[in-house]
Amino acid sequence: AIAKIIEVSAASPTSFDDAVKDAYNEVAQSVRNVKSVYVQDFIYEPGEAGETGGRFRVHCKVTFMVENANA
Length: 71
Description:
The protein is an alpha+beta fold. The chain is built from 1 helix and 3 strands. A 3-stranded antiparallel β-sheet has the order 1-3-2. Strand 2 and strand 3 (54-66) form a beta hairpin. The relative contact order is 0.36.
């Protein structure tokens, strides 16, 4: 079996947890057999002066299994 790893970034205005879920959900729309999501970086981006809140950003490595067309 062969696994591939892709890198993705996602952000959420509410939490790191939601950002990770958003990353997974976005990848799962076009990639099958996702096996894991490894969060490489957690980054909080504060809003501009006068804004409330900020953004929770994650950089992830997503591992999925490659299907063998010859099997």
